[in-house]
Amino acid sequence: MTDALAPGSTIGILGGGQLGRMLAVAASRLGLKCHVYDPAPDGPAAEVSARATTAAWDDEAALTAFAEAVDVVTYEFENVPAASLDLIESIVPIRPNRRALAVSQDRIDEKDFLRDLGLATAPYAMVDDAASLDAALERIGAPAILKTRRFGYDGKGQARIMAAEDAAAALAEMNGAPAILEGFVEFSHEVSVIGARGLDGAVACFDPGENRHEDGILRETTVPARLSASQRTDAVLLAAKILTELDYVGVMGVELFVTPQGLVVNEIAPRVHNSGHWTQDGCLIDQFEQHIRAVAGWPLGDGARHSDVVMENLIGDDIDRVPEIAATQSALHLYGKAEARPGRKMGHVNRLTGPAR
Ligand code: AMP
Questions:
Q1: Helices marked H in the chain — which ranges?
Q2: Lowest mean pLDDT among 34-48, 98-112, 143-157, 243-257
Q3: What is the pLDDT of residue 37?
Q4: Helix (H) / strand (E) containing 38
Q5: Which of 14, 25, 185, 201 has CA atoms 20 to 30 A from the CA of 147?
Q6: Mean pLDDT computed over every residue of the chain
């Protein structure tokens, strides 16, 4: 374990939500400390971390003090401003690296990257105004989806275009932000692969999970996913290709559409991923520990799965069902958020459905 962080070292985490919380819990099991940086006070991650800094992304003094207090920095939130990262990186390594972050922050750069790797994506075109949207629709056709290039999540910043007449309303929804038009992919279902790459270049992927969304938000992930043996292999190989090309260190989520023509990459997330939460109870080493191992320079777990799992997200008022769920033999993971707003991820539950098939 050359370059490996010794127990007692500190991992800095940018972003203080539930992903940070579960990373910090995993790190603590390995005897590592976490220091969370987030502009909002009292987030889910700060509650379980050794240290927390509450400061703005442009607070240079706070960023410097944070970077000097940790041994490596990772993130659970992709939209940290580039200038903050420049400052941090001048003091301490950031893993996964900046290129992975840059590629995934911009949907056009992401699609260009995937296309250059020879991977299938939806047809796409850059849209900045009504004229470029007309040209894009002419080329790609309807139905299509207009999305903001940056800062989209959980289906936000997206508008469907079923026919050319919908174009103006869809463009208005972008609020002047640079956008991408994507052709609508006729998929049978959606799956994701959670892959990891270590500092030594070793790659380990978890089994693909099958994802069901409601209102653009992940509702449920089931493993094993409905995939043929060759699709399963394809999914893992393409994730490994992405990880290796980016010289990635850490865990990444790769979202895929399953189509009769093969797997189409929807998007990549350079971090632990909601669709990988099943690993907490389906694997000996879960995605959070895997990410901590990677960024700490430790050997990776092999990704093996011991159980079939259905992971259900608890969103908004679902939190009221906790007493009932707690009375069943299932693994509850709650994020400690005080207020249950509609669409807010409050926790999740992993139900084991049998030994791994
Ligand atoms: P995204 O934020 O890009 O992951 O999109 C959220 C959800 O919208 C995806 O999980 C899909 O269900 C759907 N979606 C996004 N892009 C496309 C596309 N090009 N074709 C069909 N469905 C899509």
A1: 18-29, 60-69, 82-89, 98-105, 107-116, 130-140, 167-173, 229-245, 279-282, 287-295, 322-326
A2: 143-157
A3: 98
A4: strand 33-38
A5: 14
A6: 96
Q: How far, in Å, from the CA of 185 to the mean position of ligand 1?
A: 8
pLDDT for 79? 87
User: What pLDDT is attached to residue 156?
Assistant: 73
C-alpha 134/C-alpha 353 separation (Å) is: 49
Distances (CA, A) of 298 to 66, 246, 293, 318: 23, 19, 5, 37
* Closest residue CA from atom 2 of ligand 1: 155
Domains and CATH numbers, the chain: 10-94 (3.40.50.20), 123-183 (3.30.1490.20), 189-355 (3.30.470.20)
User: d(Cα 212, Cα 233) in Å, to the nearest integer?
Assistant: 21
What is the distance in A from the centroid of ligand 1 to the CA of 218?
Answer: 11
Average pLDDT for 278-307 = 98
Atom of ligand 1 nearest to the CA of 186: 21
Distance of CA 155 from the midpoint of ligand 1 (Å): 7
Q: List pocket residues of ligand 1, CB cut-off 6 Å.
A: 122, 145, 152, 155, 182, 184-185, 190, 213, 216, 255, 266-267
Confidence of residue 153 (pLDDT cuts 50, 70, 90): low
Q: What is the pTM for the complete model shown?
A: 0.96
Given this model, what pLDDT does residue 154 score? 63
107 is in an annotated binding site: yes
182 is in an annotated binding site: yes
339 is in an annotated binding site: no
